[in-house]
Every structure is written in structure tokens, then in C-alpha cells.
Amino acid sequence: MHAFLITTSKGLDDLLMQEIATLCPELSLKSKPGQVLFEGELEDAYRICLWSRLANRVLLCLAEGDVNDAEQLYQIASSVNWSLQMDVTQQFVVDFIGTNRAINNSQFGAVKVKDAIVDQFQELYERRPNVSKDNPHLRIQCRLWRQHLGIYLDLSGHSLHQRHYRLKAGDAPVKEHIAAAMLYRSGWANDSAKTLADPMCGAGTVAIEAALIASNVAPGLSRQQWGFSHWKKHQPALWQSLLDEAESQQRPCSCAIFANDIDRNMVTLAKQNASAAGVAHDIIFSNQDALSWRCDTQQPGYIVSNPPYGERLGELTQLLGLFAQWGLHLKQDFKGWKLSLLTSNRDLLRQMKLMAAKAYQLYNGKLACQLVNFQLDEQNCEIREQAPPGSDFANRLKKNLHRLKGWLKQLDSNCYRIYDADLPEYNLAIDIYADWVVVQEYAAPKDIPESKTRKRLMDALMQLPSVLDIDNEKVVLKVRQQQKGKEQYQKLATEKEYMQVWENGARYWVNLKDYLDTGLFLDHRTTREMVKKRSKNKDVLNLFAYTGTVSVQAALGGAKSVTTVDMSKTYLEWAKRNFELNKLNNVYQFRFLQEDCLKWLQEHQGQYDLIFIDPPSFSNSKRMQDTWDVQRDHVALLDDAKRCLKKGGEILFSNNLRSFKLDEQGLREKGLIAENISNQTLPEDFKRNPKIHHCWVLRHAD
Q: How does pLDDT run across 600-628, given as a tens digit for each residue?
């Protein structure tokens, strides 16, 4: 008797356990997440290698024990008589999975086991076997869970999901064992006389796996290389008898299997893969849009498919509408069928207006997915007349556009806000940047279920392209939570796509995808214009300058000099690019300084006519000596700024902390008087949210 460990993807362990119980009914099985364990004979392991449609690897336990230090790891590996497993002339590789406090690096663990193996051979034969990562004769797998280590021989060699019929996989493939699991979970595998259809077949994996099941073809029958092929204890006669048995059990496919895709190239690829699997003659292929495709069969069957998930937002907004149309098509033309769809985005399936019968959690690679089953019965196929989802949001958006129509004609910019959480249930801010739309989703209160907010968001995204007459690919979605300090500048992506926009005679570079903010604060449009009008022949300081948009307006307004200070090299480079875009290239007139703004201001002796300060609400940046809190520290900041202010000069001080209260008494004691100009700096498109920012002009008291 040997101890074996069979692995699979998360969520499939129960299904794998059922499969093994069918293949080897005499075994006593135990399951763990993604694993099934048993003690049995080598024949059992061979049978699972040959027949399992759900397993990834079949592992034979060679040794196990507790590991609290590297020496224990070495000793457990040394306890195996490796000369009984392989020859010194053979090549091997060690895969090490897991870490603990003692072995906190899997690569170190693999090297330690490798050392134990080669040292044993060196001692016995004065020769060492070689390691080969690409083409080893034997693959050793070590699995460390907390203190417990298991050392295994990988009998499968390569993952069993690799059936070796897929010439190519396409852009969003479903793995072979996941496709088989879909067929089991859908119910079709136990009802395989019924029609099976995949209207979005991609590379054809679901249909091919269905044909293999219907023909009772062992999934490992065509595999040439196994992890046991060069193993010393391999029993070729036993293995050959199992191969012969599997050959004799094949049967003609007795059901209709349909595979369709809108992409002609994918249909061609699916046909090639089916030919490689030997089942092309069992599958009826077609090249049509799934929204109009019909199945040429009299009796209802099963639709099992892996439709697109909409990982990119532009794709997602388009798919929302397509899934709604597909749901209507299925209700009209596939009554009585059973439907099983794999998705990582349940919101897409909700657009189909179908009530799910059951959902199963599983992983396609590292992607968490659900297989959702529907019964297209009379109740589910009832088509109800109702207002399109999100129609109230669409109506409000149209009303806002109509209200802003006259103002937009006068606006000297192609960037503006058209919606700001006008309806509480659609908690979004929507901004236009030329022909792009940025949707910011405010974090919902904790007492509102995430499923509800996600549904509202999907409904809104579904309406946007038609209301605004824009391409789906030009919608960008961001989630805006309450930010602290420089968190509003956090990196979101690395697409590095910049575009030009214009405002009040200036041009700016904006990046709509890589950061939470775009590089241009739209609510300060009027403030920037105010700085421009006040800058002529003046020395201007822009502190916490971000991308330097205020500095650009000061320079365009005729400033004698402009000093731009920020802690971030990224944003200072961005500011320089904004200056170059506006042909502001005088290096003596315009300075850019990467500094801790607070420390620099305390130590600086320069004198300025106009100082613009828009600090973060809070910061614990590593580049700052201490934490910064605008409510706590603004008086000290403005006192330092006053030292650098010429007589008759002005400080424009702004921040966006909604609860902020200016300490006017504290400022008077420092010799500063403040005039609240917040209302004057609020653009028309932000008047619904008057606390979007606060702004004051401060001057010397004497």
C-alpha cells in the first residue's frame, strides 16, 4: 500500500472525490481544499492518471515529517532511498510548495532537498545526478503546510489538465479540467445523451471535453510522457493493461454537440483542436453571433459556456448590453434548455434577467469564478415589460446635460463634470475629458450590501454610452474612497496613456487610467483662472504643486517668475511636460523643486507676491519628517508662508477636507487676515457639492 495525494483546482475537491470513488470504489478517501488523499495500490494511481478529467497531479508519498529548521528538512529528504527511485544518470527537478517560519523561501527549500538527493548519490556512487528544469526524468514535489512536510514523486509529470490537443488556447481560455468540471456541474455529464451546445466556444475546449466524455475516451490515453515513465518502480505491464482496457471501452458519440463562435478564427482553431483530440467528426461547428444563433435540434439540451467576463471596462460596458440581449434571445429560442455559464463577473449574468438554480465556486487558474446554472423553464422565460435598468439615472443625466448646455457653450475647456451623486442610489461622479468619460464610484456606506451597489453601477454603465453617445472603450471606471494624504495620488495601473486637454488658454497632459486622480482637478478650474489674472509681473510660488497646472496658468498670466514645489519626482516631471506643452521654456523664469514642502518652506528665505497652497488633508509620507494634518497644522504652515510673502502680497490657501474649519483667530495672532472666497472659486458644474473644496485669500494684517 502506498499513500497518494491527488491535487486539483480550488472548488473541485468534492467533485474529484466523487470521480475517484467511481474509478476506484474500494478506496477510503479523504479530502482537503484542492486535494484528495488515500492509501492504495499503484494500479489505483495509474487508473487516476489515465482516467481523471478533474485532477491536476497524482503524487506518490515518499517521505513526510515535521520541519522546524533546515536540517530537519535535509534529514527527511535523506530518509528516502533515492537509488530505488532513479539512476544516478537520470535528471530530476524539485518543486517546492509552501513556506513556514523555518523555511521561509520555497527556492531555498527546493535547493535543500536537491542537496540531500545528490549528496546521497555522491556518497554511494561518487557521482551526482543532474538537475533539469526543462526535461527531467523524475519530478519531485515537496509540499510544506505549517510544520508538516510531504515529499512526493509526481507520477503525472505535467499537469493532467494538459490533454495535449490544444494547439492554441485563444485570449481567455478555460482549462481542460475546468471545462470537464463545468460539464459535471451542469448535469450534462450524467445526461450525456442530450444535446450539448456552446454558443461562445472560443478554442472549443468545452465541446471537445464533452465529445471525449460522450465517447468514453480516457483523457490520458494520448499522452506520451508521464512522470513514471523513467521511474525505477514503474510497472510497464500493468500500465499497458490499463491502456488496452481503456482502448476497448471507447464508444461512438451518441449525442449532438454544437460549438459556435462569432470569431471565424476561433472557430478554425476550435476545429484544429478537435481534430488533434480525435473528435472533430463528433462536433457541429458554426460561425455566428450568439445573439442570433439557434441550435438545429428538436429536443432541449444543455448550454454550457465560458462567455467573456469583461475584464477591461470598455469591454464590460459593451458586454452589459450584449448580455441583456442574449438573455432575451435565450428566453425566446431556448425554452426548456438548461444553461450553465462560467463567469468571474456575476453582474454580467444579472443583465440576462434569469433566476439562477445553483452556483458553484471554482477557480480557472488564479481567477475566482462561479459556474451558474439556470433552468430555462416557463417562469424564467417570461418576458416582462419594464423600464430599462438605470433609466432613472439616464433621465437625470439627460436633465443635467440640458441644464449645463448654455454654460458649456461659454466654457473655455473640454473637461467638466456632468453628474455628482445626484441620485443617492447612484453614488457616482462623472467627468468628461474631451471625448472620454471618467466614472468615479464613491465607496458605499457599510450598511448597504455590495451586491446592491454593484448592480446600480452596472445599470449606470449600461446607460452611459447611449446617453453620451460615446464609444464603450472610452469609459474609465475608478473607485474613490475617503483618502488620506497622498493616497489620492496612488498608482492604479501602468498603461502610461496620456492625452491633451485644454482649459482657459492652457493645455495639459492628463492620464485617465494610471492614477486615482487624472492630473487635473476640475473643481479648481476657476481658482486657476483667478491665479492667472493675479500673476502678471509677480513672483509666484505654487506649493504642493501636483502636476503644476496652477503654475502653468500663472506663467501664462505673465508672472515674472514661477516656483513649483512638490515632493514627487513623477509629478514634477509631469509639471515640466505641461510647461513644455504650453511653450513655457524659460529655465531662469520657471523653477521646479523636488522638496519636502513643509521643511522647504520653513527654511526658505525667498519673497513672493502670490503664493498658492493646496496641501493634502493628511500625509505620513516617508519624505516628510512628521505626519501632516491640515486641520491641526494649517496655522503653522500659513505662518511659514507669511514669512515668504511680500508686503501687499496674497496667499491663496485651499484644501478639500469637508469638515475643515479655518482658525481665523490663530491666523490673526500670526498677523494674517483671511477672506473666504470658496463660493467664488466654485465652478458651475460643481455647485451641487459646495464642500468640494474650501478657499481663502490671506493677506498681511498690517
A: 999 998 899 999 999 999 887 554 557 89
**Number of domains composing the chain:** 4
Q: Is the pLDDT of residue 482 over 50?
A: no
474, 435 contact by CB (below 8 A)? yes
Q: Are 259 and 293 in contact (CB under 8 A)?
A: no
Closest residue by Cα to residue 91 from 164, 5, 157: 157
Neighbouring-strand partners of residue 153? 60, 140
Q: At what angle do helices 13-23 and 42-51 cross, to 10 degrees?
A: 120
483: pLDDT strictly greater than 80: no
pLDDT at 385 over 80: no
**Residues 420, 429 contacting (CB under 8 angstroms):** yes
Contacts of 75 (CB under 8 A, 6+ apart): 116
Burial of 221 (0-12, 13-18, 19+ CB in 10 A): middle
Count how many residues are written for the chain. 702
Number of separate helices (H) and strands (E) present in the chain: 18, 29
What Cα–Cα distance (Å) separates residue 236 from each residue in 526, 535, 675? 82, 88, 91
| Same domain, yes or no: 335 and 440 | no
Residue showing cell 533539469? 132
Q: What single DSSP character describes residue 157?
A: S
Range of the domain at 12: 2-154
Cell numbers that stand for 366 in this block: 488564479
> Is the same domain home to 147 and 211?
no
Instruction: Of 212, 225, 100, 241, give the one whose Cα is nearest residue 159.
Output: 225
Calculate ∠ Cα 176-178-179, nearest 5°: 65
For helices 236-248 and 42-51, the axis angle rounded to 10 degrees is 40
CB-based burial, 138-148: b 16+ in 10 Å, e otherwise: bbbbbbbeeee
Helices assigned H by DSSP within 254-388 = 264-277, 313-333, 346-350
* Same domain assignment for residues 538 and 577: yes
Instruction: Provide the CATH number for the domain around residue 75.
Output: 3.30.2130.30
**What tens digit of pLDDT does each residue of 150-174 get?**
999 999 999 999 998 988 776 668 9
**Same domain for 395 and 368?**
no
